Amino acid sequence: MKKIIIFFLILSFTFFAIGFPLYYTNLKDPEKISFVRDLLPDQFKSFLKKTVFLIPEQKLLLELYQIKMEQMLRLEAKIAKIMQEKDLVDEEIFPQTQFIKLNYHEISVDGLEKRERRFAPRLFADFPSGGKISPFYIETLNEKTILIAVNGTSLFYKTPNLLEKEKPVNYEIKNNLPENITVTDTFVFENQIFVAFANKDKTCDSMEIFYAEINLVFLNFEEFYSKGSIGECKFEPMGGRMAIYDDANHPSILITVKNLEDQFSIILLIDMKTKDTRPISSGHRNPQGLLVNEKNIVLSTEHGPRGGDEINKIIEGKNYGWPEVSYGEGYNANYNNTDKFRYKKNHARHGFEEPIYSFTPAIGISQIIQVPKEFSLRWQNNYLITSLRGRVIYRVNFDENYSRIITMEKIKIGKRIRDIAYNEKYNCFFLALEDESGSIGVISID
Length: 446
Fold this sequence. Notes:
This protein is an alpha+beta fold. It folds into two domains: 2-86, no CATH class; 102-331 and 339-445, Neuraminidase, CATH 2.120.10.30. The protein contains six helices and 27 strands. The strands form seven sheets. The protein has a five-stranded mixed beta sheet with strand order 4-5-6-7-11. It has a four-stranded antiparallel beta sheet with strand order 1-27-26-25, with no helix packed on it. A four-stranded antiparallel beta sheet has the order 8-9-10-12, with no helix packed on it. Residues 22-28 and 120-129 have low confidence and may be disordered.
């Protein structure tokens, strides 16, 4: 080690004593001393220029360059971290998607009831509005768009006004819905609007459906279906989504029915003419989306526990596993590596129907809608799945048998999406955004 140190000191002195004058002479008259420069190895000359013979101006520029490079690297790392935290997964920030560029704007809604979000303090303490939401459902009828709030308040907009970026006026529609209700879904069929709700003046297994001829002055609702008896209601029901289904040429309503005190939900079929009912499927936890597509195939989405939100193809007579099987777990348990799973993790192995897809972590899955072919050639045979907790839309493409997802694109919206509707005349989607006072998101083709 001593020999190495001594050698380094002698080498340094030699280059300072001899190399610097030679280098300075070379600057004055390069031709006189160029032979010395030619004798030195290239790597050694590069070392001298970067260290011993670096002039102050060059050294300053190099230091500034290094500082700038470090700043750029830190900035790039910060941008990458922000994009990861904010979930900016598209090639560009929405409304640019993978294949098409969309137009998007939001319109705030006046007149909706705010409610405390259930479970918000326990699950999502960082909820931006402190747990306040204004849930509503949206139906669009070409020239008019109707909103039904969670408490039964009904509003309408002139659809063309929603396409403008200025805030339009909405108009209240009077109705005779019961006062103490929680609306769970709406749909329009043959100029009638159907509203499903839980009646808090009845028992918790009460799920009612009322219908009315569409009238923008007064909606005179009549009872279509009622399940439950008079009594005290301690909990709000889960589910309550509806869809029209062709049951051997008999128009019928499918509705997801569950109560917090029950072990599982079912999808119930109600004949629109006879009111006869029969269960279609069972073993659901909390269905929040329901769709019958153009081929009369039934698709549902449902909330799992922590993780385990599902997309299911509904087949009559099948059991979908809850509460025995789930790809999720409880929110307050099973975090330790040694903990046993509470729920079984394979549906088919235990005699139940497997989901098409299960989201982990959970996204707070909500409604599912088929993208009409008129919307975009690039989105043909696609479906849009909305989410509450995730605040995103998933554009998905299923295989021919609806047994798996082939592609999935995550489209960031940034607000809780309760419902989605397509307007055929104006070729656009309307989103029911429930954060704080509520707003309508409008998606159209650029």
